[in-house]
Automatic annotation (TrEMBL):
Keywords: Membrane, Transmembrane, Transmembrane helix. It comes from the Bacteria. Coiled coil: none annotated. The keyword Transmembrane helix applies. This is PQ loop repeat protein. The chain crosses the membrane at residues 7-27, 61-81, 88-104, 110-131, 143-161, 167-188.
Length: 208
């Protein structure tokens, strides 16, 4: 269906920059507060996997989009490493995740890849949710990133179901749900609601 291809390329154009608000935000505020290093380690690995999946399946909208996401995620991880004085061996996990995803996609196909990609994506978002929950200072986190990401996943789902792309169907569904949970939590914290397990927080954060 041609209209789904149009949606797919729209998703690629928008999706290529959905991490950009978070990238710009963390650089602008000069703080990685509220961000989970593990989330972005896994994001780098997952984006690499999606990039290769796009090449293997002949979907330029998939690989082009994820190359940009990969670069943005890598920049965020670099900022986190510098801000928190972390060792550069944090990149080892990203390489291992990417290697596992590419191997499964190449050997077992799209469905197996779709089931596996849920693991790093789900774990990364759950860890980010937990980090955001307990963080008294969450200046480094961008609500616009979450909203933008959620909209992008809706476009990917339309494309995936219209073109029977099972890997994206599985991955985008899980990601959308988790992104909305993080967005909801961020809105609650910005409103100044005191959450269990948090000693105190700073609701007045820069917009975005």
């Amino acid at each position: 269906m041609e209209w789904t291809l149009v949606v797919g390329y729209l998703a690629a154009i928008i999706g290529a920059f959905y991490v950009l608000p978070q990238t710009v935000h963390v650089i602008r505020v000069g703080s990685s507060a509220g961000l989970s290093p593990l989330t972005w380690q896994l994001q780098v690995g997952a984006s690499t996997g999606w990039t290769v999946h796009g090449f293997l399946t002949g979907q330029p909208n998939v690989w082009a989009c994820n190359i940009v996401v990969l670069c943005c995620a890598a920049i965020i991880l670099i900022v986190i490493c510098r801000d928190r004085k972390l060792s550069w061996n944090v990149w080892v996990l990203s390489v291992l995740v990417a290697g596992a995803l590419v191997t499964v996609d190449s050997v077992f196909g799209a469905v197996a890849y779709g089931m596996l990609i849920i693991v790093p994506m789900t774990v990364s978002m759950m860890i980010q949710f937990q980090a955001l929950w307990v963080a008294p200072d969450f200046r480094g986190y961008s609500w616009f990133y979450n909203a933008f990401a959620g909209f992008t996943q809706i476009l990917w789902l339309i494309y995936a179901f219209g073109n029977h792309e099972q890997a994206i169907q599985i991955g985008a569904s899980a990601t959308f749900i988790l992104q909305m949970l993080c967005l909801g939590l961020h809105m609650v914290k910005r409103a100044g609601v005191q959450l269990p397990g948090v000693a105190g927080h700073k609701p007045a954060v820069p917009a975005g």
